[in-house]
Amino acid sequence: MREVLESDVDGEHVIDMDAVADAAGRETEKPPFYYAEESQQNRFTCAECGEVNDILGRFGYCSVCSTWNGLQELTEKVVPGLRARINSGGPHESYVRDAVSEFDSLVGGYVVELVRRVGMSSARKNRLSKRTFQNLKSAVADLREAMDIDLLEGISVDDMEFAGLMFHRRHVYEHKGGVVDEKYIADSGDKSVRLGQALHESAESAHRIVNLIVRMARNLHRGFHEIVPPNEEAIRFHKRLSNRAGSSGGAGAG
Predict the structure, then answer these.
(1) Dist CA 103 CA 74 (whole Å)
(2) pLDDT at 21
(3) What total number of domains does the chain contain?
């Protein structure tokens, strides 16, 4: 292609654009305007409006209705995998660890967007950005105070205490080989274990924490989109199309 552009000879020239595309980036860095039509890291169909999205990275907005895909990623991809692993047998400690880690990652995505899009003081931004969920109660309190989002809405005190315990145990499973240390006892208040004891989980406790992170994620997603509204018209349009398709299918079946 360069030879054609630099040629002093007038006339018609044939440029093989397939060859140009194949050569781009082979010997030099690809130009910033170059785009190769290839799949990115995460292809998903938006559960709200039906649009097919192909995004770089794991979390992002639907390109049509602007719904954040965090909850959908959790419920459609992460949770089924976790449940299958739990049902297949132990070690259930690793499933509890992974469930809490997934929730931590999920919340992080929402918080990054809130910090980016919502006006707030620098101190509040720093507090939210640096918040981890090792201590569930304090993290929940920070999010409620800063954004008026209550992760524990509709969750009983008993379930809240259980979830808090599992969040503390995640740190032990991840960094202490599952063995109780003084910090765990002091931070969690768990009186059912002794220093140096190996923690263990059951299929029941693993399923229970998975159920709870889904409920907390739904609260987070709802609160997030009350602050950052999606395109409701696009969502309504999708629902109208779905209803028509369902009606047509029912009529045809009869």
Answers:
(1) 8
(2) 54
(3) 2
Note the pLDDT of residue 191: 93
Q: Are strands 42-45 and 52-55 parallel, antiparallel or unpaired?
A: antiparallel
How far from chain centre, in Å, is Cα 37?
A: 25
- Please tell me whether residues 101 and 43 are part of one structural domain: no
How many other CB atoms are there within 10 angstroms of residue 174's CB atom? 15
Where does 31-121 have alpha helices with state H?
70-73, 79-87, 92-117
Please compute, for residue 1, the number of CA atoms within 13 A of its CA located in the half-sphere on the CB side: 10
pLDDT at residue number 138: 87
66-86 per-position pLDDT tens digit? 999 999 999 999 999 999 999
Token output for 31: 């130009």
Cβ atoms of residues 125 and 115 within 8 Å = yes
Q: Which residues of the chain have pLDDT under 70?
A: 1-40, 246-254
CA distance 49 to 209: 30
Note if the bond before 80 is cis, omega within 30 degrees: no
Measured at the CA of 157, the angle between CA 152 and CA 159, to 5 degrees, comes to 75
- Whether 43 and 54 have beta carbons less than 8 Å apart is answered as yes
Q: How many whole angstroms separate alpha carbon 151 and alpha carbon 140?
A: 6
One domain, residues 37 and 109: no
Compute the Cα dihedral for 208, 210, 216, 219 and give only its sign. Answer: negative
Torsion on CA atoms 55, 56, 60, 63, rounded to nearest 10: -30
Position 81, amino acid: G
Last residue of a domain, one of 11, 45, 67: 67
